[in-house]
Amino acid sequence: xxxxxxxxxxLEKTFSRMADRMRRxxxxxxxxxxxxxxxxxxxxxxxxxTVTSVDTSPDLRQARVYVSVLGSDDERAETLAGLESAHxxxxxxxxxxxxxxxxxxxxxxxxxxxxxxMRISELLDEGDT
Length: 129
Known about the structure:
Helices cover about 55% and strands about 15% of the residues. The model has no long low-confidence stretch (mean pLDDT about 85). It is an alpha+beta fold and about 130 residues long. It has helices at about 5-40, 75-85, 85-95, 115-129, and strands at about 50-55, 60-70, 105-110. The protein has four helices and three strands; from the N terminus they run H-E-E-H-H-E-H.
């Protein structure tokens, strides 16, 4: 007996594979950028930075790198400026370590989720007392 082709199942599998691939690419880019930042860059503007996540465009041409920076607002702005100036060096590290057809252009964005989480924790602690 022949199986009936199910378009819905086929689409779900295709999107699932694409989502898995994007997740793997995002994680690989995050690991490479994090490792390079941990080794240290020569720019004194770059302070204590943590790469929280990476979102890559579907065509793998651009990657938005979310970073958390320890310090004041001025130190955050200086760190983001330092990261923007070092994006070429970080892209070169990506190109040498990852075998991709196109090396994504890196854009650094401050991740506000950690600050939001700390603020919520403070509000909850105030409510308990």
